[in-house]
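Loading example: each entry is read as two labelled lines plus one structure line.
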Amino acid sequence: MKRLEDKILKDGKIGEGNVLKVDSFVNHQIDVNFMCEVGREFYRLFQNEKIDKILTIEASGIGIACLTAQYFHVPVLFAKKTQTCNIFGDVYRSKVESFTHQKTYDIIVSKSFLHPGDRVLIIDDFLAKGNALLGLLDLIHAAGARAVGAGIVIEKAFQDGGKRVRDTGLRVESLARIKSMSVENGITFM
Amino acid sequence: MKRLEDKILKDGKIGEGNVLKVDSFVNHQIDVNFMCEVGREFYRLFQNEKIDKILTIEASGIGIACLTAQYFHVPVLFAKKTQTCNIFGDVYRSKVESFTHQKTYDIIVSKSFLHPGDRVLIIDDFLAKGNALLGLLDLIHAAGARAVGAGIVIEKAFQDGGKRVRDTGLRVESLARIKSMSVENGITFM
């Protein structure tokens, strides 16, 4: 998505530890007008799939997932990162190792909202090592539901997550695929 | 908002400790079609205010804030609950005591995204004791920005948060105001 690549070049910054900082429009401040365009692009890509539900993970996936879901007219379910006292009853649970936060955490969804046969589209802001996405796939499979694809805003294609996830057979559509990035040489796309 | 009250009566559940469980459409699964209606209602209420930005708090405020912001054509900024390594630079910080999670946490926003003179609308899913809202007001005031109002989906009007926040002079618009709730007698509205 050319407009997204241009926006990453214009507003993205590369921080220490090779972190791509897009907190001016993706994951702290959200450029909602622009993310509606992103949502429409996901709709264009997946409109021919029957989709019952969009699954994402808190926190930064939620806004993009909601702005996308309105075009599909389906609900969003977001996996939570710790068990809190306002989720009752049984949950599906998986473990995710976070590259950004350098720790391992549990993700959970209530069994009430993922059912056998549900056709689920995953939406998330980043794909790097693929751990979050593989954790979400775990939850979908545990429920006997079916993942029909994943829509990713930014894929760090120089990391192995994309391969790991595509190797499971999942259709992954990343709107910007970063080939390389460094403070010295900037950002290039696939 | 009558449609919201009806939905709370139909889909809400009261759990132990007087927790209102609306995780089927508000804060775990999100009924995006319905939350677009909620967003349009916030737009109707605040459309005559000049608004530069919508501020919310992760995680469950984000979806509602984004679906609302698209009608105002403004960005969303969400306060984060812990400092993570992909926010650089200076932040505004406040402390919030959580009723639901029974702990105190820091909320932060990057100084890059709240500026003196910004006119900010706060959007959140719940108003109970008012701590989250007062914490967000702290951040806005620390930036020299101005809070023009708060749009709340569900106010527990039997708790004192609404009074505490309105006593600061802030205009608070809650779409459903719960007068009482109990497992025995169900939910009544103001």
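The longest helix of chain A spans residues 32-46.
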